Amino acid sequence: MTTILSDSDSYNTRFNIPKPRLPYKVDQHLSVRAHVPPEPTNSDCCLKFEARRERESIDPVGRCGKHPPLPGVFTSGAAELKTVRLVRAADGYSAQLLAVRVLSSDINLPYNTDLLVKKYDPLHSDHEQDEAAYAKLADFQGSLIPRYYGSFSLSLSIDGTSSREVRLILLEFVPGTCMVDLDPSKFTQSERQAIMKEVIDAETTIYIHDVAHNDIHPRNVILVSFPPFDQARNIVLVDFGVAWVNRVTFPKFQEQFLLGVPISPLLRWIDIERLSGFDNWIDWDWKLWVEHNYEHTRGSITEYMQEVFGPRDRGARQKASVKD
C-alpha cells in the first residue's frame, strides 16, 4: 500500500528547505543484495497525528534514519546493475522506476536485456511492498503481468559518513506502449472494444486468483500488440502497489469475498463508474456491451454474489459487510 505525501505540511515547506536531490542517474552502478520482504501489513495509507507532527518538525533524511524499512531477511544473492534510462524518477511518486542492465550476478538474472527497477525510496514517499501480488500470480508472470525477478535492497550514502537502505524489486521491462500514452481517436470503435475486453479479461483472471489490483487505469495497462489481437500476449497489467492479496486487506473478511470463486464481469465490470480514466476510450452503451460479451457467465451468479459484488451501491454494501 502506498502513501504519496503532500508537501503542504512538510518540514521542507515549513522551513523553505529543499529536499536532497534524487540520487539516481544514467550510467550509475547499483550494488544490490537479495532481500525477502516481510508479509504485507494490514493498514490504511493515512498518516496518523504523531506522524504528521513528526513530518513537520524533522527533515526527510532524519525521518528515513528514524524509520528504516521493515527488516525482512537478507539472503546470499547479490547483483551489480547499471542504470541505462530514468523511466520515472521524481519526487512525489510512490516509487522510482529505472531501466537497468545486469553487469554481474550470482543469482539467475537475465543479461543483455533491459530490466525495470522499481524503488521504494522512503525519502520521497511512504510505501509498503507489492511483491506479495507478484508471488501470488506467479503463473501469469511473463503473460498478463511482468515477470518478477526478486526483491532486493540498495544501500545509499546520505552524507558520505552514513547510509540508508532502499528496497526495490526487479521486473521485466515490458515491450509495448502504455495505454495512457495512446490517442483513443486513432482507433476504431471495434479496436477500442477489443482493447477493453482484454483489460476486463486480464483483471478478471487475476481476481479469480484472489488478487484485487485496485488501480486499473490506462497508466497501468501496457499494450504489447494492437488490434486485431492475434498474439498470446496482447496486454500487460502493471503496478500492484495498492493491490490486495486475498481480495481484501483484512484476513477476517476474506471469507465474505469468496476466495477462489470466479466472479462474473456482469457484476464487477458493468458499473460505468468503475472505469476511471477510460472515458475517452468508450463511446458505446457500456452496459449492453458488457452483457453481450459476458452473458455466458450469468448462470454462475448467486444471490449472495449479487449482494456483495453487484453494481448497485456496491461500496456501501462492502462497508456494511465489514462492519458486520
UniProtKB/TrEMBL annotation:
Record-annotated membrane-spanning stretches: none
Pfam families linked: ABC1 (PF03109)
Top-level lineage group: Eukaryota
Signal peptide: none
Protein kinase domain: residues covered: 70-324
Gene3D superfamilies: Transferase(Phosphotransferase) domain 1
Any one GO MF annotation of this record: protein kinase activity
Protein name as catalogued: Protein kinase domain-containing protein
Species of provenance: Polytolypa hystricis (strain UAMH7299)
